[in-house]
Amino acid sequence: MSLFQGNGLACWRGEIPVFEDLDFAADAGEALWLAGPNGSGKSSLLRLMAGLLEPVDGVIAWGGAPIAADREAHRARLRYLGHLDAVKPHLSVAENLRFWAEYWDAPHNTVAPALERVGLARLREAAGRRLSAGQRRRLALARLLLAPAALWLLDEPTAALDSDGIALFSELVAECRARGGIVVFSSHEVLALPDVRRLALEGIAA
Amino acid sequence: MSLFQGNGLACWRGEIPVFEDLDFAADAGEALWLAGPNGSGKSSLLRLMAGLLEPVDGVIAWGGAPIAADREAHRARLRYLGHLDAVKPHLSVAENLRFWAEYWDAPHNTVAPALERVGLARLREAAGRRLSAGQRRRLALARLLLAPAALWLLDEPTAALDSDGIALFSELVAECRARGGIVVFSSHEVLALPDVRRLALEGIAA
Amino acid sequence: MSGFFALVRRDLRLGLRQGVDALVVVLFFLVAGALFPFAIGPEPERLSHLAGGIALTVAALAALLSLDRLYQTDYEDGSLDQLALSPLPLELLALAKALAHWLLTGLPLLIAAPILGLILRLPEAGYGPLLLSLALSTPILSLLGGLGAALVLGARRGGVLITFLILPLYVPVLVLGAAGLDAGLGVGGTDPWLVLGGLDIAALALTPWATAAALRGAQV
Amino acid sequence: MSGFFALVRRDLRLGLRQGVDALVVVLFFLVAGALFPFAIGPEPERLSHLAGGIALTVAALAALLSLDRLYQTDYEDGSLDQLALSPLPLELLALAKALAHWLLTGLPLLIAAPILGLILRLPEAGYGPLLLSLALSTPILSLLGGLGAALVLGARRGGVLITFLILPLYVPVLVLGAAGLDAGLGVGGTDPWLVLGGLDIAALALTPWATAAALRGAQV
Amino acid sequence: MSGSAFHRFANPRRFLRLADATMPWLAGLTVLGFAVGLYLALWASPPDYQQGETVRIMYVHVPAAWIAMFAYCWVGAASAASLIWRHPLADVAAEAAAPVGAAFTLLALVSGSLWGRPMWGAYWVWDARLTSFLLLFFLYLGHWALLNAFDDPQRGRRSAAILAVVGLINVPIIKFSVDWWNTLHQPESVFKMGGPSIDPSMLRPLFVMALSCQVYFFLVTFMRMKAMLLEARRQNALYRVPRAQAVARRTAESGRA
Ligand code: HEM
Ligand SMILES: Nc1ncnc2c1ncn2[C@@H]1O[C@H](COP(=O)(O)OP(=O)(O)OP(=O)(O)O)[C@@H](O)[C@H]1O
Ligand SMILES: Nc1ncnc2c1ncn2[C@@H]1O[C@H](COP(=O)(O)OP(=O)(O)OP(=O)(O)O)[C@@H](O)[C@H]1O
Ligand SMILES: [Mg+2]
Ligand SMILES: [Mg+2]
Q1: Within 10 Å of residue D190's Cβ, how many Cβ atoms?
Q2: A25 to chain C nearest CA, in Å?
Q3: B162 and A135: CB-CB below 8 Å?
Q4: CA A168 to CA A139: how far, in whole Å?
Q5: Average pLDDT across chain E, whole number
Q6: What's the pLDDT at E242?
Q7: Which backbone phi and psi does B25 adopt, to 5 degrees?
Q8: Rounded CA gap, C217 and C159, in Å?
């Protein structure tokens, strides 16, 4: 019975079954790597974990209590990073991050260090639409640094990142785990992270 | 003096210099791998090669003639694949691809095989917005198969692709090169492709 | 709650990146309104009769022009997921969006209306009623519009259909606004405004919930 | 050339798929038009005289509703790059886009116009001229609109800005269209329509180039 | 064209030299002209027999109107030049002159409508000329709004230039159609603007004022152009980078990369 776990999960997208009877479990400080071919349901599972999707079957529980019971609490404890970077093209890099800080009630003074950390300090004033793919991804990663969260749900966090970026990501994961946070991430490339649990999805050959 | 080459290229985005005095050259059947950190100008260079951007300085030439001299011809000979997949969410997978076939005057009967090849045959009727990240990327790759082109410009073609997808991509590249085509692609991960030239960009430390 | 205002501020900033933008919105009403005389002639008495209807038409136009973007962009660039994953309830999110939309379309119209009245030769007595009608009807346009925008998000057939049930709801609002003008000019009673006020409260109370539901529906 | 029709077909399919745009346009057209009887007070004779002009103006405003989407979506999802990288010249691309826009907005407006005519009690003799004026003026609106949409590509507040840019340029068309109405009602000669036709041709010949230039500018 | 070209080629020493040389003279002429003109207009010219003192508005109004129209042609021409020859100086010329022209248009509108109050008993009348001026004002504002609607200035310049040229083609059409529209629906204004003959005693101050406004236009435009060019040059220096540092190392090794 671990801190964050799901049992017998079934997920449908549209009218199509993605996976059925899937279990996962993660304890404080653990990292879970979702691996699987395209369309096997990694993103779907992460959306289930975040509560953005409802499982057709099964329950996801945090500390024993189903997340459906108290959505506000679950939302408050997690950070989600999807395929899309949620960067506003017409806001500057700093404005983009500052908005999320305000929106999540994170202290203002976390913005500058976060940008520094992901290597975007130089582009602080640049408009979002001027960012390159990897720079945009880095800005998305910076959101994770605004406030410590107990649960990180990251969908291909290293997509478009260069080698430094990947190194940075590993550091972030390590720190989060050291804090006792749980990190669930999907990725196609094998990342050099210490003792990650690997959860392989095959998807349903429909 | 190679088939496709650029000399003394300088590129600015917005009011900012990206790179200066950059040369590249590729002959029929060769592959050029653009490597470099985030923001070093890989995408920008590919857009220059495609004619989507104007170099501030220097010339890009095909067969000795600057591409600026005959844009129609250059456009007709190349296929470009950007960070964005150009998939219409409200069109089905087949409709998406069929449109590009019609638009580029490619024979209709190339659509089905192309989908088959990238492994989307099963999702032929699915709406574009139901595709997963990797499936969308595969659909973008399928556009390359509609008609043989002399020049492929691919921006992180393997982003979001699983291992099969990457294998597929290597095959496609090999075939294109066998046809005498030129393949220029950017990528952060090291792909197992036989004898590719590597062009490293550092970008300008501004 | 701070999230609420943060969101309103962000949408305003996105809408009014620079001072210019705010001005553009106001001018937009003048241009659109000034179009009518060219089609129906410059005779003052004629224009003065139409001024109210013109103003309301332009109001509806402004409300609709920016609507489909209200949630669409956030939906497409992934911001909506992030917005939904915050302690702020979706109902308040919907309210914040509608408020920002009104500040970007309704308020400028109120500012532009007097000038419009001037060039359309609105009689002195007409200004008060015009402003009152606009002030009462534009909020509903934004609230209902927000609901419509949320419904078409997933763009599943259903959403589209319901939108066509939503848009006609504009009619009574605008009609009441127009009626209010006549009332102000002493043609009828003043009740249209009372009804409008009632609708305002109803919309304020109901649409956020409906919108929130629609947004959850889009997450399939 | 086949690319041209492929693009038109695609845009039509997308427009009808999403469904919203075209119908919102028509609904706005009818709703806004329907406002005026209340605004003017329904005295038939005055109304019928204005009906045509109102219909023309409201049609112009309605056609603006779906404009900012014309290039924006293709721009954001990367399709525009692909479209630009084909043998089809950008000028023809612009033409195809404008044609699709007209088929999705101008044509439905023509079909809806008689209904509005009924609402506004347009006299029998007025229908022919109204349709003719609409048929001659809406294409220019789509062409100018396409230019506007290309100009504001990547700008903030697209919709409002387009309107603001386009309408002053559109005034001559509106004037001529209205003049056509009166001519039809036997006030003057029929030359307004000839001039309008001339403007149609001029717009058809010139706007695609301007639009193509604007699209190239967007590739910064 | 890529945004940078503006900086790379914006090196118009010749223009700057010319501007520095002429501006003192322009400034002097402006002051002198307005002094004389206003004196003639306000004191040394008789009140109109039918308009009384209000006629003096004309000395502001008409010159403003003339310059407003001239300025739009200037902007349109400069924009066309920038689109054809891609010379950044043309961009600057258009961008610098537009607000000045807009200001004169506004002046004509305001002075006109102030004039209209006593003449027509209303601040605004849908008189043909007034209307076409209102539209001209909208064109100016559209141009200005477009210039400022983008995060990337170069993009704004390009769009605005295209709009200005299209507008230039369209202005005569607008003028013609509006006049026609106005005669179509008989205007209720009895007063004909620019009545048949204006008395010489009124013409002299009118022309002095017109000339002063013209000079003033050039003065302000040149000043704005100069400021913009210096700013561009400053940024340009900001981004100049030693070539050596910029050269990308090319490691062409065959075999597995
Ligand atoms: C918003 C209001 C007005 C605008 C925009 C306006 C516009 C113009 C313009 C553009 C001109 C110069 C045209 C040319 O010379 O070709 C002009 C000239 C003139 N306007 Fe106005 N006008 C306005 C109101 C008035 C009023 C109210 C009066 C008099 C009661 C008036 C009297 C004149 C006269 C006398 C001239 C000089 C005639 C000439 O040089 O041809 N204007 N106005
Ligand atoms: N549209 C744009 N406008 C202005 N500047 C831009 C634009 N796109 C990119 N840039 C800037 O140009 C530089 C190079 O961008 P580019 O996308 O070519 O880098 P990249 O090598 O593709 O990076 P990545 O590996 O992240 O894709 C970056 O510093 C970026 O900030
Ligand atoms: N919004 C959606 N509506 C309907 N079906 C969807 C939607 N998103 C994804 N699907 C389907 O659900 C299945 C799983 O999608 P998902 O995105 O979870 O896969 P994934 O493992 O993330 O793939 P990838 O590695 O490409 O990101 C896919 O077959 C896809 O077609
Ligand atoms: Mg995924
Ligand atoms: Mg890139």
Answers
A1: 12
A2: 22
A3: no
A4: 13
A5: 78
A6: 38
A7: -155, 140
A8: 10
Ligand 2 atom at minimal distance to the Cα of residue B16: 5
Q: What is the pTM of this model?
A: 0.89
Which chains lie within 8 Å of chain E at 3 or more CB pairs, if any? Answer: A, B, C, D
Give the mean model confidence (pLDDT) for residues A144-171: 94
C-alpha–C-alpha distance, residues D57 and C34, integer Å: 10
In tens, the pLDDT along A39-49 reads 999 999 999 99
Question: At D146, is the pLDDT very low, low, confident or very high (cuts 50, 70, 90)?
Answer: very high
Q: How far is D216 from chain B (nearest CA, A)?
A: 8
In this structure, the strands spanning A16-26 and A151-155 are unpaired
Residue C186 has pLDDT above 90, yes or no: no
Q: What is d(CA B25, CA B197) in angstroms, rounded to the nearest whole number?
A: 10
B45–E contact, CB cutoff 8 A: no
The mean pLDDT value of chain B amounts to: 92
Interface test mutation site (partner D, options B99, B129, B131, B156, max chain D beta carbons within 10 A): B99
The encoded tokens of residue D219 equal 């590739």
Among candidates C18, C43, C119 on the partner chain, residue whose Cβ is nearest the Cβ of E185: C43
Q: Which of A115-119, C134-138, E173-177 is the least confident region?
A: E173-177
Lowest mean pLDDT among A131-140, B54-63, E159-168, E244-253: E244-253
Q: Could you read off the pLDDT of E200-233 as tens digits, one per residue?
A: 777 788 888 889 999 999 999 999 999 988 887 7
Instruction: Give Cβ neighbours of residue E35 (< 8 Å, ≥ 6 apart).
Output: none
Mutate to test the pocket of ligand 2, among A115, A132, A141 (most ligand atoms within 8 A of CB): A132
Give the DSSP letter string of B164-197: HHHHHHHHHHHHHHHTT-EEEEE-SS----TT-E
Backbone angles phi, psi at D48, to 5 degrees: -60, -35
Cβ distance of A84 and C85 shorter than 8 Å = no
**Given the CA of residue E51, which atom of ligand 1 is nearest to it?**
30
Burial code (b: 16+ CB inside 10 Å, e: under 16) for E125-145 equals: bbbbbbbbbbbbbbbbbbbbb
Report which of D144, D106, D115, D148 is spatially closest to residue D12, judged by C-alpha positions. D106
How does pLDDT run across B55-111, given as a tens digit for each residue? 989 999 999 999 999 888 999 999 999 999 999 988 999 999 999 999 998 888 999
What is residue E255's predicted lDDT score, i.e. its pLDDT? 32
Residue nearest atom 18 in ligand 1 by C-alpha distance: E62
Q: What is the largest CA-CA distance in chain E?
A: 97
A88-147 confidence digits (pLDDT tens):
988 999 999 999 999 998 888 999 999 999 999 999 999 898 899 999 999 999 999 998
Which atom of ligand 2 has the smallest separation from the CA of B14? 4
pLDDT above 90 as % of chain B: 78
Taking residues A4-33, what's their average pLDDT?
Answer: 91
DSSP assignment of B73-142 equals HHHHHEEEE-SS----TTSBHHHHHHHHHHHTT--GGGHHHHHHHHT-GGGTTSBGGG--HHHHHHHHHH
* Residue E229 CA, ligand 2 centroid: distance in Å: 27
Amino acid letter, C139 = P
> What's at A196, amino acid-wise?
V
Q: What is the distance between the alpha carbons of residues B13 and E4, in angstroms, rounded to a whole number? A: 7
Helices C170-184 and C44-65, packing angle to 10 deg:
150
Block residue for tokens 């093209």: A89
Q: In degrees rounded to 5, what are phi and psi of residue D99? A: -60, -45
Q: What is the CA radius of gyration of chain D?
A: 18
Q: Which of E60, E71, E67, E12 is nearest to E34 (CA)?
A: E60
Q: Sign of the CA dihedral A88, A89, A92, A93?
A: positive
Tell me the residues surrounding ligand 4 (ion) with CB < 5 Å: A 43; B 132-133
